[in-house]
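Schema walkthrough. Field components (list of strings):
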Amino acid sequence: MSSRECLLAYELLQEHYGKIVADVASFLLQNGWQPLRYIALKANLKLDQVRKALCLLIQHKLAKFHIRKRKIVEYAIDTENVLSILFHPKFIYTVKLLYGDAAELIVEEALQHGIILMSTAIKSVADRLPDENGSGKIEKAFKDLVQTHFLQREPEIEKNEEEENIVPIFTQNEADLYRLPTLSDESLKRKRSDDGSDEPKAKRLKSENGTPSTPTDTVEDDGVYWSVNISRFRQYFRDQSIVASVTQRFGTPCGEIVRAMLRISEVTTPANAQSTQPISSAEIARSLPQKLPMEHVEQHLKLLSNDEDQIVQLFDDSGSGGLYVVNLKNSALALSTATVLSYVQQRYGSKACRIFRLLMLKKHLEQKQVEEFAMIPPKEAKGYLYHMLAENMVIMQEVPRTPDHAPARTFYLYSVNIQRLSRILLVKCYKTCTNLMTRRNHLIKTNKRILDKEERITAIKATLPDADEAQLEEIEEMMTSSERTSLTKHQHCCNKLHTAQNQLLNTIFVLDSYLNALSSA
Amino acid sequence: MQTDVEVKQEPTIPLTLETEILALCNDNPKGVSDKSLETAVAGYDVKQRVTAINRLLTMGKLELLRGSSGLIYRIKTPSAVGSISGVDNQEKLVYQIIESAGNKGIWTREIRYKCNLMLTEVNKILKNLESKKIIKAVKSVAAAKRKVYMLFNLQPDRSVTGGAWYSDQDFESEFVEVLNQQCFKFLQQKCENADKDTTLSPTATNASSFASSEEVLEFISKLGISKVTLSPEDIETILNTLIYDGKVQQTVVPVANGESKKLFKALKPLIETTDFARTPCSLCPVFNECRPGGEISPENCLYMDEWMEY
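Field assembly_structure (string):
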């Protein structure tokens, strides 16, 4: 884990869970797997505090544990999940767009608690929603979320009564990941679900639990915990970005086609596959929201597959009209390249971007050739090239003609490596995120006095609901106009920093998914 | 009377010596080395021989070359003799070297290598020849400070002057920019026209938004912004720069007579500006030195202050 990511993780945890948790986490990030006592010793914290912090981290799936040598339990941080905290607001917003307010609140509860029982979730959401018939709607929303894999079930503790284990061992049946317990509707009382079913259910059949449940006397669906399925959300965002870029470049019909293809293969493709399942063009045409004539669909698909980025590929000619796949790896590469190019353009100018793209296409070039192909005045071209070299955007390779590497007799070849650049850019994004958060915290600290005053005013106003005009005015005057302006300014700045941070997430996501696609290939 | 005969005796000796030397050189068209000349005209002493040789060189009948073992004297062909008058042997040497370079021209250092003369001498000779309008200096495009010399009446080669993009050895960047924009506008317009026509099927729309380099050339010549006539290859270099800008894509299609033709189409970008580039940190020149709590830090960042103003 790079140091930038560790710093960002520290900031995030401090903001969300407090200093002690952040300290424990940063110690573990720096030192890997550590036992409990060691953490308490080295991080100068009380054993109790460390224990509670670890509980919290494990509950939120941010830390994991294992046994070493049968006696010692060691803990470590799951860095990917920590950085996913950044994406929480985006998850909530997406679910709101897809499934409505009830689902949004369910996901919010799930994210706040880490892992949660279905009944607890429904109960707390029902409390927050003012709707009276809410519980039916809420339950339906919950089922929708499970069916489309946005929520998944946690593995259960294996009841092993022979030995005493130091740590709980989890078992998970793949088929059980999305199996809903049956719940009756009697005023939030729930029957116990049938956990020990032997029938394996295929993951594709997202049908609700059809096995008969044995009526017991316990009320809660105890032991069935649910959590947010982060990789599913990532898949969803990835699909969104692919569709958006295809629409931008090829137009709306092609965008719709790609969206249909991705929707069909939503639940059938594993998260880190290189490409979706092959889909026939007839199936695509059937599932389009606006019906297009069949030949048009086929022609669009042909156009898409002839493009040089190869986001959509022709898998086979068999089947009605040909089988097409969306190549996820290529699309990740295309998006990542576009991000890098956009960064180069913003920072160095469009002429430098031309040089950069030229090097990308031609792989290796000498300086003279760069000037020639790019049709930029030689002095300017030299300037841009060396500036980019100084900041590691461009790599130089010496090819000597003589053993003594004399400069006059050596070829200097320039080239561009997208993979390396994506990684550099991702680290820069993390640093920028940290910077934005630091600045926001600094602003809050500097304006603490005004903010406190504002809070007091609102508190006073709340306690006097029937105050008359004069009293209200008096309260308002506690704050001078200059203080008011600085307050509005502070809010504006904070909003801007927040928005920038959220937008930055998009870039982080694109680059991260590209690097993941590379490492899993 | 006797004195007259005596006087006349003297000049004849050198003359006969000269004819002897000439005859010897004629016999050996490849050249006579100094040593063999010495043995052949052994009757005369060194001073007389030297004077004779010098006279022959000045008259242009002999030429002096440096061989591996010493000096070599060669009979000069009549054509080269007649072309220059009033120049001495060194200048002739330099002239011949420049002549052999053809229309690419030759650099002063190379002239020096080939004739092994001193730098100052070579410069003097070159100045001399230039004033006589026999050779001219042409500024090279490849290395901006070098001058190459070539014969006066020759046209410099394209590689030296750079062709249509260079006027007076200066790269015409504005010209290239203007052409760049015009070509792109033409291709964009073509694409839009194809999109507007909704009666066509997608493949037809796509096909009609392509343009070949000849079509673009026609459009540009009609616009009349270029002083020199451009060839299809010139237009292709401009279109290539548009490809490197990411605004145009190229495909190759086979044409009726078995060859393949290049077609170009305007391209829309894959994504708009990336969000990372909207933060001030991405454009910050001191990004690497910035640390929380350091001298350059996010808390006192000037760029962020400006950015939060609006």
